């Protein structure tokens, strides 16, 4: 209904209703503030004392509407927190506050999602396609915010239960308020984001780069999640370990856009380490392969992996990363660009009709070498040369048996890995193909 659909009477009535509603809201707000004002300080986190005046002023920023205050009250009443003592960060979608339990001296990060509709409007793409939230996609802004907070809480639990990943411990969730462990470097100050961390030396930068790549793989393989906003801003170095958080937008691998989000994560990570920290990085395609390829395909000695403890597993993965070539030339840069422009689909279910007919007509490259070696490349070239017009199903099945052989890397006996694993091949051929068809399609296995 547009505004002009209302009659003047309607408008008056709406006006009266909205005035009386805002009176009620104001009353609710005042009541609830009276109850909790001396427990809440929303100023930038400092060690200053809270005054009721400050708390009242702070509500003007509309983070704490009466309902949110009510839920915060529940968290106070259940004994998790006794006080909010300053604002650590104000973001587009949520603010983070420093929470305290004064009787146990425990500290918490309290993430309060803003309930305004506007900032949440572009979030649908992360939730649509998530089977976990299938029935819950709502247009009601409150419900949307609640879903979002719940999504972060559930993802955080998943991360926290994975021993190879460091993340803040999830503590409590009430509506749009998420309470988690506070990562602190003392005196109530948060530990530094990776962005602000004072790296000791070059070696330490390289170590954290590797940590980040291993984190992406463990997230994908063990937690079945793609972060979807991974960067130097959503990771913290706490007690020398790399902690990951802000996982409200993370999606499962079967989300239709998960591979696009993953490519974006990889690019962000590489950009930070290469442009800001000035180290050489690996090709995005190689990192992608490292993240998505199951162990029994990526490593010949994958069985050894099962026997290893956390440190052993990390070293094993690190050894693999050390076998990869670092980017060194403009051609490498070009290949990254091609990789970013690839039209990637994880299965035939995700290929749209237009692409499917192009694919069936043999007008599209199936880049099996996304995860492959020279052996596969040859096979792929042979397929193309024979100008086949096989159906998509056959094509995928056909590749599934070679998937089990591709890209295997065995460094158990200190052998140097095959050099063809480490290089992009046939660069000229790819350039020509890209020019010819505009884009390429690669199928991945789940
Ligand atoms: N558990 C925590 N312990 C300490 N600090 C934290 C914690 N969680 C978040 N922070 C701090 O708050 C900032 C914002 O957190 P987060 O990224 O989860 O919120 P956000 O709404 O997504 O913010 P942004 O829009 O800035 O990304 C982080 O960059 C970090 O500095
Ligand atoms: Mg963030």
UniProtKB/TrEMBL annotation:
Compositional bias of kind Acidic residues: 1-12
SUPFAM superfamilies: Protein kinase-like (PK-like)
Record-annotated active site: 229 (proton acceptor), 246 (4-aspartylphosphate intermediate)
Protein residues bound to ATP: 111, 183
Keywords: ATP-binding, Cytoplasm, Hydrolase, Kinase, Magnesium, Metal-binding, Nucleotide-binding, Ribosome biogenesis, Serine/threonine-protein kinase, Transferase
Subcellular location field: Cytoplasm
Cofactors named for this entry: Mg(2+)
Residue ranges occupied by any RIO kinase domain in the UniProt entry: 53-293
Biological-process GO terms, alphabetical: maturation of SSU-rRNA from tricistronic rRNA transcript (SSU-rRNA, 5.8S rRNA, LSU-rRNA); negative regulation of transcription by RNA polymerase I; negative regulation of transcription by RNA polymerase II; positive regulation of rRNA processing; regulation of exit from mitosis; regulation of kinetochore assembly
Region (Disordered): 1-23
InterPro entries linked: Kinase-like_dom_sf, RIO-type_Ser/Thr_kinase, RIO_dom, RIO_kinase, RIO_kinase_CS, Ser/Thr_kinase_Rio1
Catalysed reactions, semicolon-separated: ATP + H2O = ADP + phosphate + H(+); L-seryl-[protein] + ATP = O-phospho-L-seryl-[protein] + ADP + H(+); L-threonyl-[protein] + ATP = O-phospho-L-threonyl-[protein] + ADP + H(+)
Residues holding Mg(2+): 234, 246
Similarity comment text for this entry: Belongs to the protein kinase superfamily. RIO-type Ser/Thr kinase family.
Name recorded for this polypeptide: Serine/threonine-protein kinase RIO1
């Amino acid at each position: 209904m547009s505004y002009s659909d209302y009659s003047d009477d309607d408008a008056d009535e709406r006006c009266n209703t909205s005035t009386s509603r805002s009176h009620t809201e104001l009353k609710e707000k005042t009541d609830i503030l009276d109850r909790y004002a001396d427990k809440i300080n929303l100023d930038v986190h400092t060690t200053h004392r809270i005054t009721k005046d400050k708390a009242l002023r702070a509500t003007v920023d509309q983070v704490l509407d009466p309902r949110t205050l009510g839920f915060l009250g529940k968290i106070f009443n259940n004994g998790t927190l006794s006080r909010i003592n300053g604002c650590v960060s104000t973001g587009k979608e949520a603010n983070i506050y420093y929470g305290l339990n004064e009787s146990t001296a425990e500290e918490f990060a309290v993430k309060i999602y803003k309930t305004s509709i506007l900032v949440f409007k572009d979030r649908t793409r992360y939730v649509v396609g998530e089977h976990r939230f299938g029935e819950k996609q709502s247009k009601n802004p409150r419900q949307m915010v609640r879903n979002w907070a719940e999504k972060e809480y559930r993802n955080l639990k998943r991360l926290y239960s994975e021993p190879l990943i460091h993340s803040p411990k999830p503590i409590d969730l009430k509506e749009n308020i998420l309470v988690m462990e506070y990562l602190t470097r003392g005196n109530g100050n948060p530990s530094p984001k990776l962005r602000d961390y004072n790296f000791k030396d070059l070696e330490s930068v390289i170590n954290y780069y590797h940590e980040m790549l291993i984190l992406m793989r463990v997230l994908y393989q063990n937690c079945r999640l793609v972060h979807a906003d991974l960067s130097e801003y959503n990771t913290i170095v706490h007690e020398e370990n790399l902690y990951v958080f802000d996982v409200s937008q993370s999606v499962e691998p079967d989300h239709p856009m998960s591979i696009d989000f993953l490519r974006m994560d990889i690019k962000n990570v590489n950009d930070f380490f290469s442009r800001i920290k000035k180290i050489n990085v690996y090709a995005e395609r190689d990192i992608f392969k490292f993240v998505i390829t199951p162990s029994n395909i990526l490593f010949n000695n994958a069985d050894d992996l099962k026997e290893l403890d956390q440190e052993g597993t990390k070293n094993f993965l690190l050894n693999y990363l050390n076998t990869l070539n670092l980017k060194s030339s403009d051609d490498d840069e070009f290949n990254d660009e091609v990789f970013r422009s690839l039209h990637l689909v994880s299965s035939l279910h995700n290929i749209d009709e237009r692409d499917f007919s192009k694919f069936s007509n043999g007008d599209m490259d199936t880049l099996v070498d996304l995860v492959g070696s020279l052996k596969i490349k040859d096979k792929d070239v042979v397929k193309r040369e024979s100008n086949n017009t096989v159906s998509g199903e056959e094509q995928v099945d056909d590749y599934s048996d070679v998937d089990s052989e591709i890209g295997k890397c065995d460094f158990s006996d200190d052998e140097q890995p095959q050099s063809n694993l480490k290089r992009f091949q046939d660069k000229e051929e790819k350039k020509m193909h890209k020019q010819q068809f505009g884009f390429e399609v690669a199928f991945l296995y789940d």
